[in-house]
């Protein structure tokens, strides 16, 4: 049986995401494991006034797990719960490895740029270190697979994402859209032949994508857009009423330096639908 790991905390976004995790687990007939991590207290107040800081700080996180189990039970469903104390991203990844999760599911609240820098690090680190794909659920979004959008640029990471999107499309009967973008700086676009070359490269990427789809027997819709990838993907998703966006991660060590300016971070922070971040080679069912 496959396993989904849903991380919960005291935020509204995680509570709503947990409800969607139940929907996904039911559709996959998968086991749902829910984890809450109490950040370890690293101050020195406990030496003076606060005894057993970790235990006291864990109270709201344990309540989150209790509420999650109660809600699942009210629907006739059973979940497993795990509580850890430590660095949240590290503990979430550790539990994902222990339970051999197929997906890690995280709530993704809409944030300002400053909030993304300060608070988005847990999501960034989970994406960086996760042994499996990470599904980000914006507040109030629902998990649906009727229309799936994958961003492709010819890289290995984007082709892994394309393959995963095709697997999901085939499993749920969803319509798959593949979009690649041309983002040429204005000063370069004025040079002779530059835009034509960019278009040819873009068309070659879509041809590769279409060939993979034919091999997997998945019908696809393709588009080539002139814009920054983030704007192009978000605009296309809104235009076509996309239900799920699929993007490829470039793997370890890219997040710390580039997450704030990355396509994944920008799309995940602004999308109205869930975003599936694909890590590593496609997993066999």
Automatic annotation (TrEMBL):
Residues 2-138, 145-278 form the UspA domain. InterPro entries: Rossmann-like_a/b/a_fold, Universal_stress_UspA, UspA. SUPFAM superfamilies: Adenine nucleotide alpha hydrolases-like. Transmembrane segments: none annotated. Belongs to the universal stress protein A family. This is Nucleotide-binding universal stress protein, UspA family.
């Amino acid at each position: 049986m496959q396993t989904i790991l849903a991380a919960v905390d005291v935020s509204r976004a995680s509570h709503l995401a947990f409800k969607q995790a139940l929907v996904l687990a039911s559709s996959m007939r998968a086991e749902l494991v829910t984890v809450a991590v109490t950040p370890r207290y690293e101050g020195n107040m406990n030496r003076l006034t606060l005894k057993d800081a970790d235990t006291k700080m864990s109270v709201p996180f344990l309540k989150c797990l209790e509420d999650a189990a109660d809600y699942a039970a009210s629907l006739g469903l059973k979940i497993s719960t795990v509580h850890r104390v430590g660095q949240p991203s590290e503990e979430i990844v550790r539990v994902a490895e222990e339970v051999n999760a197929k997906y890690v599911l995280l709530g993704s609240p809409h944030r300002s740029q400053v909030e993304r820098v300060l608070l988005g690090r847990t999501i960034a680190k989970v994406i960086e270190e996760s042994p499996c794909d990470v599904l980000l659920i914006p507040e109030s979004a629902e998990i649906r697979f009727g229309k799936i959008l994958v961003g492709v640029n010819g890289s290995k990471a984007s082709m892994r994402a394309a393959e995963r999107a095709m697997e999901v499309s085939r499993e749920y009967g969803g319509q798959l859209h593949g979009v690649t973008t041309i983002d040429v700086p204005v000063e370069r676009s004025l040079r002779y032949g530059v835009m034509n070359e960019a278009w040819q490269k873009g068309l070659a990427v879509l041809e590769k994508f279409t060939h993979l789809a034919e091999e997997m027997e998945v019908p696809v819709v393709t588009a080539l857009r002139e814009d920054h990838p983030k704007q192009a993907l978000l605009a296309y998703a809104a235009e076509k009423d996309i239900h799920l966006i699929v993007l490829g991660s470039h793997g370890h060590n890219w997040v710390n330096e580039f997450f704030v300016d990355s396509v994944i971070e920008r799309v995940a922070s602004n999308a109205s639908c869930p975003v599936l971040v694909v890590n590593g080679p496609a997993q066999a069912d």
